[in-house]
């Protein structure tokens, strides 16, 4: 009803809505007309409409007001005007939750529901079920059962749908109506059959066996209603999904048989169900795809749209299966419906061969301006996928993307394009120059701050490495002149990066930065002054440390440390090395089909986790003198099997010259209490156990924590990797599981845990160096060591790279963890900070012959880390 | 009222409409009485306890009655008062075989008579001492004593014994009511 008015609204510009300025109190005053005799049906219906309008507008009716007008409304039942009566039903439904004693109309509704007028019966059933609660349901149960099997379809449907609603509140009562629903399911009316099936399914939803039985029964007998078939297909595919695997089940056969149904709706539903099944094979897909192919040439636009949309989805997972439809899709490219055409083209882009790309791009650019932003994003995603597939085509695709970039569009759309271009640049070094210059053009006229700063950052990073870096300077400096603060600050940083890496450009950069020092904005001025001073020193190490590779500490950690420092003033200068390092985000493998999605970085959470540990450990007096916490192992290691008497998990904390092992123990026996729990550790190498901090008591199912402190070996500092054998020692006291009372006497006991490994990775924190080369030069070759190894067990470069990264626990830089295809040599750059705060860089050159040969070069400002690396690799 | 309606009224073709409330304890036979008064083709076979109320219509020789048949169950008796204002007459049904609950009926009747919407109006009240066919039923005179009907001074009232299942005594009561309504009009 509301919709009707809204529509009117749109047509005639808002002022014609007769209900626009309704006053609640005035309307309720008007509602007194209901009490008059004789009743004027037209007037009353109009007032009811006003009340309903108010309720739907979100006007709040108090309980008193609502009840009063509700009772007034009940008097309208004496009129036999059909319109008024149906308005009454609507009002009852709307007010059932606001007014009190709505139950008063039960008998009136029951009378209408069992009466002779079919127009009243259906709506009366719906209204009745709306006002009935579970206690009253018993009283009308008999009528409901009759209504479900009524021969008038509208009554039967109403009863079935209302039962479905009642199912939520009174499952047990509605469950008894299954026989009636069963009878209704064999009705000739398509809607009744559909609703009956729906009710039957929801009653049995929790009983897999019953659902299976129901499905097989209906598949045998067949149904008239296409809606019911669609529902069956959905139920079947849901069951198949839960079963996972077995495709030769009768359920799958049923779905497949529906592909030959005479109703298009059912055929489509079946096809889309098959397509959406997880891990579907090409053979199973084939019939579904061929059905969709037929739909592609249907005269109905809705069918064509549905088909091409589904094919588009299939193309993501099984491009080869869709190839057969290419011809039909080609025809749809010129479809007058732009949505269909766009989907057709993007599908073709996913499935098509390299040769057809040029043609398709030309086609799509002809109507790019006519489609909406959402579809444009779809196109961009398709192009991105294409770039990864056919790197050689990047020139065409890039050009296309830039024409798109120049056109009008919203933020989401622009961001998708920029993301896509950046990922192309990263993937494909050939496209770097053109890509960067196009992006430069884009920021000349870019209204989105986020995108502009992002591009500036990229320029600063990639620009200096190109052949002709000077051409970017103009674009960047233009930003300083033209844009607002945030962009200006970004531009200053980018300029400084150019200056740090190019000797010959340095003088001009210095001139530009000096101009920026006069800027209006604090941030811009600060940045410019800082960079200017650093650059004027003309020291490579400074450049690398302060311009190219920024701070690597965790920001909340730094804040805390500084706060601490100001609270306890001391003579010593603040030591940055005491600040915990930011755990470098583990770069997730981007999912193949969503290349433009922003990878969320769990940085903040990781930082706070370490904070918590630091606080916990700092509270224990034994650990006060250990200095700042360097690293905590990211995942606790389980030292027991699951489902054993005691569950113990260990977290390793590394300090400058000590390690603390934190054991989180849980006692899973409810008739025991453990006291004085410690974990005894026996090292194999030069570690020395210093002390234990026991957990006082371990009550059933409440985790407790005990610690073991070990010192690192001083004689042989390179021996960091070690295996500890662990044994839990404790005093057992038996207790009553019910009352928790314990015996006074306890006895000593031991429990053997699994061995705990400490590896090099526990001593190194990952740190991302955005510019590895600069960092490499900064550290210098004072303590450089190089060795060559053969990795006989490893057969591919990818495997070697991932093993090395995992073993050393260092951060791969410059995307060197990705091995390009078809190459038999690769260089991996790893960066980290060794315990004690020394940067540690490892370059490992890999060559693939039959096995992988690895040349490892390690650099650090200290000798120890280098030795440790060499010792551990060897 | 349209012109045609008025014309019909003058000519006596259209009957005057009267709103009647049908009240009484649960299981006293209200719905059965109303059902019996309806034309035989509109009567229902099975009578179930009324929940809330239902509206029924029947006609006599000169009047058209609209009856609000209220539920007599305890929890719904509070809802009667919502309909007092519209009532132009009251039919109060008593189960004359239920001596035990006669006091409850009296209490409800007193509450009704003292309600502000009823108290100062000269509403005709028709009492049906129903179920007179049952063996342990008390006579209508006894019922009127038990309910102290003689104390009702400001309203015309009438009591008649009835058997709603067979329809005995109903016509007598309705004829009295019709007479009262016409008398009040003139």
UniProtKB/TrEMBL annotation, chain A:
Domain of life: Eukaryota
Cellular compartment(s): Cytoplasm; Golgi apparatus membrane; Cytoplasmic vesicle, COPI-coated vesicle membrane
Record domain Clathrin/coatomer adaptor adaptin-like N-terminal: where: 24-538
Primary location class: cytoplasm
InterPro entries the UniProt entry points to: ARM-like, ARM-type_fold, Clathrin/coatomer_adapt-like_N, Clathrin_app_Ig-like_sf, Coatomer/calthrin_app_sub_C, Coatomer_g_Cpla, Coatomer_gsu, Coatomer_gsu_app_Ig-like_dom
Membrane topology (UniProt): Peripheral membrane protein
GO MF term set: structural molecule activity
All copies of domain Coatomer subunit gamma C-terminal, residue ranges: 761-873
GO term, biological process aspect, one: intracellular protein transport
UniProt keyword terms in alphabetical order: Cytoplasm, Cytoplasmic vesicle, ER-Golgi transport, Golgi apparatus, Membrane, Phosphoprotein, Protein transport, Repeat, Transport
Similarity remark: Belongs to the COPG family.
Complex and partners: Oligomeric complex that consists of at least the alpha, beta, beta', gamma, delta, epsilon and zeta subunits. Interacts with ZNF289/ARFGAP2 through its C-terminal appendage domain. Interacts with EGFR upon EGF treatment; interaction is essential for regulation of EGF-dependent nuclear transport of EGFR by retrograde trafficking from the Golgi to the ER. The coatomer interacts with KDEL receptors; the interaction is important for retrograde trafficking of KDEL-bearing proteins from the Golgi to the endoplasmic reticulum. Interacts with COPB1. Interacts with TMED10 (via C-terminus).
Cited function: The coatomer is a cytosolic protein complex that binds to dilysine motifs and reversibly associates with Golgi non-clathrin-coated vesicles, which further mediate biosynthetic protein transport from the ER, via the Golgi up to the trans Golgi network. Coatomer complex is required for budding from Golgi membranes, and is essential for the retrograde Golgi-to-ER transport of dilysine-tagged proteins.
Protein name per UniProt: Coatomer subunit gamma
TrEMBL record, chain B:
Signal peptide limits: none
Protein topology in the membrane: Peripheral membrane protein
Alphabetically ordered keywords of this record: Cell membrane, Cell projection, Cilium biogenesis/degradation, Cytoplasm, Cytoskeleton, GTP-binding, Lipoprotein, Magnesium, Membrane, Metal-binding, Myristate, Nucleotide-binding
Keyword ATP-binding found: no
GO biological process, one term: retina layer formation
Pfam families (UniProt xref): Arf (PF00025)
Entries under Gene3D superfamilies matching the protein: P-loop containing nucleotide triphosphate hydrolases (3.40.50.300)
Cellular component GO terms held in the UniProt record: axoneme; ciliary membrane; cytosol; microtubule cytoskeleton; nucleoplasm
GO function term, MF aspect, one: GTP binding
Keyword Transmembrane helix: no
Annotated SUPFAM superfamilies: P-loop containing nucleoside triphosphate hydrolases
Subcellular location(s) of the protein: Cell projection, Cilium membrane; Cytoplasm, Cytoskeleton, Cilium axoneme; Cytoplasm, Cytoskeleton, Cilium basal body
Record: residues binding GTP: 24-31, 72, 130-133
Residue positions binding Mg(2+): 31, 50
Family note: Belongs to the small GTPase superfamily. Arf family.
Name this protein carries in UniProt: ADP-ribosylation factor-like protein 6
Record organism: Geospiza fortis
Gene from which this protein is expressed: ARL6
């Amino acid at each position: 009803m509301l919709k009707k008015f809204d529509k009117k609204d749109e047509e005639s510009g808002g002022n014609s809505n007769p209900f626009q300025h309704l006053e609640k109190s005035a309307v309720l005053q008007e509602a007194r007309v209901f009490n008059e005799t004789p009743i004027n049906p037209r007037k009353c219906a109009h007032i009811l409409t006003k009340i309903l309008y108010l309720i739907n507008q979100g006007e709040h009716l108090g309980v008193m007001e609502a009840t009063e007008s509700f009772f007034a409304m009940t008097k309208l039942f004496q009129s036999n005007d059909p319109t008024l009566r149906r308005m009454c039903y609507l009002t009852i439904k709307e007010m059932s939750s606001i007014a009190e004693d709505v139950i008063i109309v039960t008998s009136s509704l029951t009378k209408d529901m069992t009466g002779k007028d079919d127009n009243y019966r259906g709506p009366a059933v719906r209204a009745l079920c709306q006002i009935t609660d579970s206690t009253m349901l018993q009283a009308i149960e008999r009528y409901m059962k009759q209504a479900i099997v009524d021969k008038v379809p509208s009554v039967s449907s109403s009863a079935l749908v209302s039962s479905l609603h009642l199912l939520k509140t009174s499952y047990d009562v509605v469950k008894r109506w299954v026989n009636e629903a069963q009878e209704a399911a064999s009705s000739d009316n398509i809607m009744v059959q559909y609703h009956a099936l729906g009710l039957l399914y929801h009653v049995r939803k929790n009983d897999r066996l019953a659902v299976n039985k129901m499905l097989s029964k209906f598949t045998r007998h067949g149904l008239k209603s296409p809606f019911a078939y669609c529902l069956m297909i959905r139920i079947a595919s849901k069951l198949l999904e839960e079963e996972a695997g077995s495709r030769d089940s009768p359920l799958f056969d049923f779905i497949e048989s529906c592909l030959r149904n005479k109703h298009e709706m059912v055929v489509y539903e079946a096809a889309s169900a098959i397509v959406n099944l997880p891990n579907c094979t090409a053979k199973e897909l084939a019939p579904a795809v061929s059905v969709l192919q037929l739909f592609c040439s249907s005269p109905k636009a809705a069918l064509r749209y549905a088909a091409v949309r589904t094919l588009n989805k299939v193309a993501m997972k099984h491009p080869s299966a869709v190839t057969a439809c290419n011809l039909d899709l080609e025809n749809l490219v010129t479809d007058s419906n732009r949505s269909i055409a766009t989907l057709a083209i993007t599908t073709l882009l996913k499935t098509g061969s390299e040769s057809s790309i040029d043609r398709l791009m030309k086609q799509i650019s002809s109507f790019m301006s006519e489609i909406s932003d959402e579809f444009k994003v779809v196109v961009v995603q398709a192009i991105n996928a294409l770039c990864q597939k056919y790197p050689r085509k990047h020139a065409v695709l890039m050009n296309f993307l830039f024409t798109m970039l120049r056109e009008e569009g919203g933020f989401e759309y622009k961001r998708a394009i920029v993301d896509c271009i950046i990922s192309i640049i990263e993937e494909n070094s050939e496209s770097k120059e053109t890509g960067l210059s196009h992006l430069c053009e884009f920021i000349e006229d870019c209204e989105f701050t986020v995108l502009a700063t992002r591009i500036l950052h990229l320029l600063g990073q990639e620009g200096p490495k190109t052949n002709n870096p000077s051409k970017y300077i103009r674009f960047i400096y233009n930003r300083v002149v033209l844009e607002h603060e945030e962009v200006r600050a970004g531009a200053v940083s980018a300029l400084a990066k150019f200056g740090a890496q190019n000797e010959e450009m340095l003088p001009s950069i210095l001139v530009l930065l000096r101009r920026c020092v006069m800027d209006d904005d604090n941030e811009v001025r600060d940045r410019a002054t800082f960079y200017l001073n650093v650059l004027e020193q003309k020291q490579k190490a400074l450049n690398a440390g302060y311009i190219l590779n920024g701070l690597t500490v965790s920001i909340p950690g730094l804040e805390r440390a500084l706060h601490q420092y100001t609270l306890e003033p001391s003579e010593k200068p603040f030591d940055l090395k005491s600040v915990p390092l930011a755990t470098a985000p583990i770069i997730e493998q981007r999912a193949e089909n969503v290349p433009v999605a922003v990878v969320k970085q769990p940085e903040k959470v990781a930082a706070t986790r370490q904070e918590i540990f630091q606080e916990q450990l700092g509270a224990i007096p034994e650990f006060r003198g250990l200095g700042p916490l360097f690293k905590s192992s990211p995942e606790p290691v389980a030292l027991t099997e699951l489902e054993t008497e005691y569950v113990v998990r260990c977290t390793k904390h590394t300090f400058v010259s000590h390690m603390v092992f934190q054991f989180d123990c849980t006692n899973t026996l409810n008739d025991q209490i453990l006291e004085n729990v410690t974990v005894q550790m026996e090292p194999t190498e030069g570690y020395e156990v210093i002390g234990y901090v026991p957990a006082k008591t371990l009550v059933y199912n409440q985790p407790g924590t005990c610690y073991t402190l070990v010192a690192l070996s001083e004689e042989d500092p390179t021996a960091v990797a070690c295996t500890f054998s662990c044994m839990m020692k404790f005093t057992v006291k038996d207790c009553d599981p019910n009352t928790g009372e314990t015996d006074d006497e306890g006895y000593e006991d031991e429990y053997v845990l699994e061995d705990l490994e400490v590896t090099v990775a526990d001593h190194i924190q990952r740190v991302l160096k955005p510019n590895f080369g600069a960092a490499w030069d900064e550290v210098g070759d004072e303590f450089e060591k190089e060795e060559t190894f053969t990795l006989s067990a490893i057969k591919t470069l990818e495997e070697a790279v991932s093993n090395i990264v995992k073993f050393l626990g260092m951060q791969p830089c410059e995307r060197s963890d990705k091995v390009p295809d078809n190459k038999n040599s690769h260089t991996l750059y790893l960066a980290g900070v060794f315990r004690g705060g020394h940067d540690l860089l490892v370059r490992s050159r890999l060559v693939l012959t039959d096995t992988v040969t690895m040349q490892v070069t390690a650099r650090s400002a200290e000798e120890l880390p280098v030795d440790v690396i060499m010792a551990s690799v060897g | 009222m349209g012109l045609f309606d008025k014309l019909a009224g003058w000519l006596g073709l259209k009957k005057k409409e009267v709103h009647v409330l049908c009240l009484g304890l649960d299981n006293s036979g209200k719905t059965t009485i109303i059902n019996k008064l309806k034309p035989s083709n509109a009567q229902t076979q099975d009578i179930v306890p009324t929940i809330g109320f239902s509206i029924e219509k029947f006609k006599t020789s000169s009047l058209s009655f609209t009856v609000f048949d209220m539920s007599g169950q305890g929890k719904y008796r509070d809802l009667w008062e919502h309909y007092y204002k519209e009532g132009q007459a009251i039919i109060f049904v008593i189960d004359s075989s239920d001596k035990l609950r006669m006091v409850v009926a009296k209490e409800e009747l007193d509450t009704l008579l003292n309600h502000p919407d009823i108290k100062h109006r000269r509403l005709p009240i028709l009492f049906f001492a129903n179920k007179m066919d049952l063996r342990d039923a008390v006579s209508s005179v006894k019922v009127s004593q038990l309910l102290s009907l003689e104390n009702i001074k400001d309203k015309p009232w009438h009591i008649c014994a009835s058997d709603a299942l067979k329809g005995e005594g109903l016509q007598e009561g309705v004829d009295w009511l019709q007479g009262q309504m016409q008398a009040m009009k003139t």
